[in-house]
Amino acid sequence: MLKAMLIDDEPFILQGLSVLIDWEAEGYEIVKKASDGREALGYLRENKVDLIITDIRMPWLSGLELLETIREEKISDAYVIVLSGYNDFKYVRAALRYSCMDYILKPVQKEQLLANIRRAAANKENTEREEIDNRRMHRGYLLQNMVALLQGRANAQGLAFIKENFRSSEWFRYLHICLNDLSALEEMSDEEMAELKNRVYEQAARYLQGDADHLFKDFFICEEDYEIGFVYCDYMAKERGMREDEFLRALHRAAQSGSESMPVILLVGKQVNSLSRLSRSYGSACVLRSFKGFQNHKDLYYYEKEVQVSESRTILCKQPLDDLVAAVNQNDAPAIGKSVDELFVEMDRMDRTPDMVTMNLNWLIFRLLNLAAEQDESISQDEVLSYISGSVSKEEIIRGSRAHLRKFACEFAEYLVQLRKSASRGILAEIENEVKERYAENLTLRELGQKYYINSSYLGQVFRKRYGQSFKNYLNNYRIKEAAAQLIRTDKKIGQIAEDVGYHDLDYFISRFIEQEGCTPSRYRKRAREEE
After folding, report:
1. Apex CA 146: angle with CA 141 and CA 151, to 5°?
2. CB 428, CB 462: distance < 8 Å
């Protein structure tokens, strides 16, 4: 409800204005009736109203003096309607100087007053919509520049914009706030996942308060819809009288409170001394995404603690590892088995420990990642790392399961074979048609891979190579194009269009629209119709 204030030194006029129209039906609540300008000014200093209807001549403080005071001292930006029994242009001119919406002569006519309060309500709605659009545009521009920064391609203008929106800090970290149950997440619909992520985001934002603008819910860099980005600055813990680890553990508890059914973890990238280097911290947090699969479960994973290369060469079984990588590259199953046996013999000879296993696995992972990249430099390292971490258990290796590592190595060898093969144009054509016909549904590579009998991870790599983007982004871009067409062709509400093209979270839809089209849906529609 909009809040209205009525001011007149005649009680019967105040009463008459109260009953002249149905204020509630028009969306207003009369929050104050004042008998003079001084009383009204005292109220306005403590309370916000949207509409002021005031007599021009009153004791203590006239209507014009009240209007002048609230405008010059910036006490209220409410719409003001002046009532007067004087048809004198000097009064009208004075009222208009201080942004009076209208000057109405007494006795007040119902239709004239009704038209004015409706105009005030419409103006208020338009102003609020414009403010919301401006905030969304500002946030969208910040998001675009942050994505560029994390990918190491931010320009000077974009970096300057980010710095304007962030407080100065001596050093920074990038964090992934992750929902940590991939099997459960794969069974969720887009709506269920978005709702869960929203709850985690809201609880984290509530804890961060004034620093909540450092949270980024809708990054469109990769496929991981289950992650929220956060840029940590050193002042955040200091101002709360906390150590960094205490602050991050408190942030974790807040985020976890938004997800009762699924664990939340924080992947803490390495510390960097300037925003321009934040891409390095982001990259290290991405590495943690996969390495966490080889560590004991924790709530917080720090890059500096989890990904360590020991100065001692004695714990790295380099020769067996090199032989194993070569065998995987050649898809030679007997050689794979022999190399795995030699690796375990070497680790056992040096008293296999969890730290040793971690060190050797880390080395193996990076070598296999390089092998995959050699097949196609455009493939996503995140996807390969995710594939690896989902297939290897450090606990199995510590227990001495050679069969486990042998099975993984053979499967990865087959994976490399698939990467070397050319994509089938027929399958990609079928997938294009699937998108055209079913873009509003919850399409996933996993479902399409099962339907067309092709490894979904490999299909994702082929898709990225062919189209220069992930399948998820391809699908979202197609949805936004369809939404843009509906904005021009139809008069549907924006929320309905979002539903029609497959988005059940309006804020997420608007964020994606800004990302692709550079403006909000309402501005896009307005601009298109102005050009017609």
Report:
1. 130
2. yes
φ and ψ at 516, to 5 degrees?
Answer: -90, -40
Cβ atoms of residues 347 and 319 within 8 Å = no
**Nearest CA-CA partner of 105 in 82, 80, 81, 84:** 84
d(CA 491, CA 475): 24
Cα–Cα distance between 233 and 244 in angstroms, integer? 10
| pTM score, whole prediction | 0.59
CA distances from 283 to 144, 341, 378 (A): 18, 33, 17
DSSP assignment string, 431-480: HHHHHHHHTTS---HHHHHHHTTS-HHHHHHHHHHHHSS-HHHHHHHHHH
- Residue 311 pLDDT: 42
Q: Single out the residue of 147, 146, 387 nearest to residue 289, CA to CA.
A: 387
Q: Which amino acid is at 396?
A: E
The pLDDT averaged over each successive group of 10 residues in the chain (532 residues) is 91 88 92 90 93 86 85 90 75 73 84 91 87 84 87 88 90 91 68 84 94 82 67 94 95 93 90 91 80 68 71 66 91 93 86 78 80 65 65 70 88 79 63 89 81 72 75 88 92 92 86 85 87 71
Could you tell me which residues come within 8 angstroms of residue 413 by beta carbon, excluding any fewer than 6 positions away?
Answer: 327, 328, 329, 330, 331, 332, 333, 336
Q: What per-residue confidence (pLDDT) applies to 309? A: 46
**Main-chain dihedrals φ then ψ at residue 316, nearest 5 degrees:** -95, 115
Candidates 434, 476, 438, 463; CA nearest to 451 is 434
Give the pLDDT confidence score for residue 108 in this predicted structure: 83
Partners of 64 in the beta sheet? none
Q: Which residues of 422-452 are buried (b: 16+ CB within 10 A; e: fewer)?
A: eeeeebbeebeebbeeebeeebbbeebbeeb
The one-character DSSP state at 270 is P
Pairing of strands 51-55, 2-7: parallel
Contact call for residues 427 and 452 (beta carbons, < 8 A): yes
- Beta-bridge partner residues of 55: 83
- Cβ(301)–Cβ(265) below 8 Å: yes
Task: State how far the Cα of 288 lies from the Cα of 82, in Å rounded to an integer.
Answer: 65
What DSSP line would sit under 218-230, residue for residue?
---SSS-TTEEEE
Token digits of residue 342: 């030699």
Distance (Å, whole) CA 496 – CA 512: 16
